[in-house]
Amino acid sequence: MESLQLTQGVVNALLLSGTLALVAIGFSIVWGILNIINLAHGAFLMVGAYTTYWLFTLYGIDPFLSLPISMGLMFVVGYLVQRYLINMVIRAPLLVTFLLTFALEIIIINLATNFWKGDLRSVTPAYAGMGFTLGNVQIPYVRLAAFAISLILTGLLHVFMAYTKTGNAIRATGMDIDAAQLQGVRIPHTYALTYGLGTALAAAAGSLISISFPFDPTVGGAYTLRAFVICVLGGLGSIPGVMMGAVVFAFIEVFSGIWAPSMKDAIALLVLVLVLIVRPSGIAGKAFYH
Amino acid sequence: MEKTILLETKGATKQFGGLAAVDNVDMKIYQGEILGLIGPNGAGKTTFVNIITGMLPITKGKVFYKGKEITGWPSFRVGRLGLSRTFQIVKPFRGMTVRENVAVGAMFGHKGQTRSAREALEHVDEVIEFVGMAHLRDKHADELTLPYLKRLELAKSLAMDPELLFLDEVMAGLNTKEIDAAMALVQEVNKRGVTLLVIEHVMKAIVGITERVFVLNFGKELAQGKPQEVLNNPRVIEAYLGEKFVKRFARQFSSQQ
Amino acid sequence: MSNKKKAPIKLTPLDGLFKGRQGVLLGILALFMVFLIIFPLLPFASGFWLNTITLILLLSAMAIGWNFIGGYTGYAAFGNVAFFGFGAYGTGLSMTKLGLSFFPSLLIGAVAAMLFAILIGLPLLRLKGHYFAIATVAVATAMGEIADSWTSFTGGAAGITLPFFRPIQWSGQFFYYTALILALGGLLLTWIILQQKLGYSWVAIREDEDAANMMGINTTWAKVLAFALSALMAGLAGGIHAYWKTFVLAEEVFKIDYTLQMILAAVLGGTGTIFGPFIGAFLYYILITLLVFYLHVGQLHASILGTIIILVMVFTPKGLMDFISGRKKLTLDTLLENIRTYRV
Questions:
Q1: Contact criterion met (CB < 8 Å) for C313 and A100
Q2: CB contact under 8 A, A289 and C127
Q3: The domain A3-278: what is its CATH number?
Q4: Mean pLDDT computed over C62-82
């Protein structure tokens, strides 16, 4: 491979890793605290993308400015879904919650396809194609901005979880639900907050993705799977772990895209399976074995 | 009197990261005996049983059963060889009846090869009666109360026709009368030819039924010998029993003499 | 004094047959089986109905297979469509590239599926709950993509075209009976296994794998066997489906929809019971058909499916078997039981 392609690939991977980290972090919280694999994660991401799209297309709102709106909206939706649906069966065996979130995904995607149609969309503000060149490497502004915002949001999340009362309540609930309850934490509400946080972050990722890549109602699934792989790579319950996992995954994705584009997803999936089998605790974090 | 060694560990060690939960333990269990294993919480008693029975991988050291090395054997092979155990926190098969629960032991344990599923189901009536649960034979395990669950745990391990049985705190949570009944049951098991390692905190049981006692502290052997000797050992008293306890038991010892 | 009279060996709870209405239920099922067997000979057995029931029977076969690993052994596999795909491709390729007739090809397809199950089962079945579930989805999706792009071997996105069944006028009946034999065979297999140690080892693994190991059960072997047998059922269904539809397309035969349907069928009827998956497949179809036709939902078909899944998961995750059998009464109270137990 030429060195230019290599360097561009590296840069692309680095830029992508920010967004992927954002995609994964919401998923990771829900999994780590609530112990549910949110199969609807990608669907919420997709709705975030569409929210930005419609705000841009119908009202001319700049996509980056639409972030708070899409996040706020999906936070509310996520909160309600958790509070009044998932909470009902959250302590049930895995199959139940798995199928439940799966069903949610089906419904959301189906509704989206029905109302917004299956055409590929993208959000193209005036500055969409612009960028700068560093040496021979292209760096589009939107990708750089997406990277920066992803980092900021991840950082904010870390601060929230570590230093605020609510954040600590959430972490405590994830560690020991009984102890948390004895300390006065209201579990149904805290759970709902956590899920809402997860969906809000998914929506943020979706909004950022809408500017960088074309999308349709079915993009979600691939992102849920990516989130899962990243969490497995980086280990649950650790923000730095997720970031590391995102970097590793971004590299795998970009370079398999260059070398074997048609098998890109298959490669990512097989990496996942390999990691699960070979490195039980990911790069950092809990074990997946009995 | 020459006694055969049934189980022997040499330098058995289990490390979790930097912490040695079981530290270089040499233990011999003689055929036919009831050996007590005591020590403070966290001393490594259950972990010791876990590494012998394959529930946890052993870090260092060797385990021999009837002279044959079984270090690192997977649990199911150990079970089929003739070693059984009960779990401190009972592990019943909740979706099955009492009879089915026990029958699994007869199907897959030491003599499991000789029986079909049906034969095993019929065979276990005796074991169920032995633990006094004949009237609950067709009840589902999730309908049982804790004392019966503990008996079920025992029945399951007995159904495996073990030669060596590890009992892990079977008396925990029982009242005085229940403890007496359990002690009698354990002695009856021993009379039938089963060698026992009894992990206990209930000293009455240790004193009452064991012939030898092994003391573990911080994963290491602290003392071993006859119950009287061990319980009067100042290091054991300091590490685990406490002076008040010894004074109280001294009365009981002398009354038993 | 011990009671020397031996109590009859009950089959509960391993197979969902139960007291009380047992006779009536079995009787109804037996009648239904007879009905299915003679159905094609009946005057009103149109092509449409033959078609539909064949589809349901194939689904029930997959559900019965899934029940081995997901219901009895307790490992929620979410990628069994991969075995369906292997069966489809194995059969298709054997007929087109090797020129074999249908049944030998079907056998090859089934064996391929089973071998694949053993191959991925050995590493994957060591994983816990969620991880196992997602790993199986990942493998199934990856297989689909590989089949889709490996043009030289599988025909890539264009797939494989199989020869037609001849004589054509008996085609409907042929596939109907083949599917029926598969489904009934699966039920028989389930019943036989439950009488054997293997059945007990599966349930023991589901209830407490550590205890199962300790009691002498070789859990690895038992799990892999469950997985392989589920692959057998799905693989055979895939092979039959391939010959029936006369084509194999990667994006068709590796669709996650099929996994979802087979799990739903099993869950609706009752996982961990013999007849649950069988009945569940019929229930599922009735439900879907009713909703699609009478609610005219058309486009929103998937949303309705999703809603059904949610309702089932929230109110009756153990399936309808308990209600059908009379074990539980269908009251508001029992419906809310699940929520009461598992809510937070």
A1: yes
A2: yes
A3: 1.10.3470
A4: 95
